Amino acid sequence: MRRKLLTFVLAVLAALATAGIAAAGNGGLAPVQPASPNAHHIVTAYWVIVAFTAAIFFLVEGLLVVFIWKYRSRGRPRTVEGPQVHGHARLEIIWTVIPVLILAAIGTFVFWELPGIADAPKAAAADETTVNIEGHQFYWLFRYPNGAISIDRMVAPADEVVHENVIGMPFDVNHSWWVPDFGGKMDAIPGRVNHTWFQAPSGDYVARCAELCGIQHAHMDGVVHVVPRAQYDDFIRARAADPTGTGLGQEEWTGVCEKCHRLDHVYIGPALGGNPLLANREGIETLLRNGQGNMPAVGKNWTDAQIDALISYTKQFAKTGTGS
Ligand code: CUA
């Protein structure tokens, strides 16, 4: 009776565990479908390591179950001791050498894959773009080669090598730039510049901050909007031509201010609707550059044009408190 109950409980647990995996599609076990060559290499390395570890897991756990069954007590008195075995040179050599070989195989494979992950493919200068990515509490700021700026939404040319300089602000905290479709994470460490790259077809790719960076870490996300080259060129040209415009201003409002503020109610910080500061160039600059109380200096390194852009958008909220 007890054995039947045990079998039943084990069967139910197994069903529950596998149902969860089935519901999660890829089981939450597999990385997302890679959209960039370096992500391909990372996924390949992932599966090779999974194969080794899964084989070891089933071998060890399988033997464990076999031994538990084979050497069960069968009614022997508890005080009877098993045979006392001392050393077995051949066995010990085998179980030392095999793990060493496995580790060497995994290590060799990963080092073999590494250049494909770290190094971007060689491309003509005309087919390369470098975007500086700054991590701030709690937004991503993108600076393009012609001086254009965008926030939380990076625009990039399709099918070309895009170099990313992931920059940690000396006055900020650690963040981590992560676009799962492009593979690995890249930390934004204050005072350092890290480099990564991608090459992806047109599409929208979700970006996340993958380093706990403060109260709104979970909302520090963005999108990489990969478009044909001509569309990318149009975007950065228009942005650079209108650096104080509401296009950037609106992104600053939603990407920077609204991470912690709402117009009509207290959120992380106080409600902002009707606050005359939203139309006060000098006052808002002081606040953005220095921070205040719990508010970090979110605009410490902003250009004057960036502050003008914010004002051009927020002045509508200074009187009415609601705006559009
Ligand atoms: Cu930035 Cu988490």
Written account of the structure:
- This protein is α+β, with helices and mostly antiparallel strands and 324 residues long.
- Helix content is 42%, strand content 18%.
- Dinuclear copper ion binds at residues 135, 138, 175, 209, 211-213, 217, 220.
Low-confidence stretches: none
| Termini separation | 70 Å
Outline the biggest β-sheet.
Answer: 5 strands, mixed
What global shape is seen? elongated
Which strand order does the major sheet show?
3-2-1-5-8
Integer average pLDDT: 91
Question: In which range does the helix fraction lie?
Answer: 40-55%
**How much strand?**
15-25%
* Strand segment tally: 10
Order of helices and strands: HHHEEEEEEEEEEHHHH
Structural class: alpha+beta
Number of separate helices: 7
Bound molecules: dinuclear copper ion
Rg (C-alpha, Å):
28 Å
Oligomer: single chain
Topology:
Elements: H1 2-23, H2 37-70, H3 89-118, E1 128-136, E2 139-143, E3 149-151, E4 153-157, E5 161-168, E6 175-178, E7 185-188, E8 193-198, E9 203-209, E10 221-227, H4 229-241, H5 246-255, H6 281-290, H7 304-320
Parallel strand pairs: 1-5, 4-10
Antiparallel strand pairs: 1-2, 2-3, 5-8, 6-7, 6-9, 9-10
Helix pairs in contact: 2-3, 5-7
The structure holds dinuclear copper ion (CUA).
Brief rundown of the structure:
By secondary structure, this protein is an alpha+beta fold.
What keywords describe this structure?
5-stranded mixed β-sheet; 7 helices; alpha+beta; elongated; 324 residues; binds dinuclear copper ion
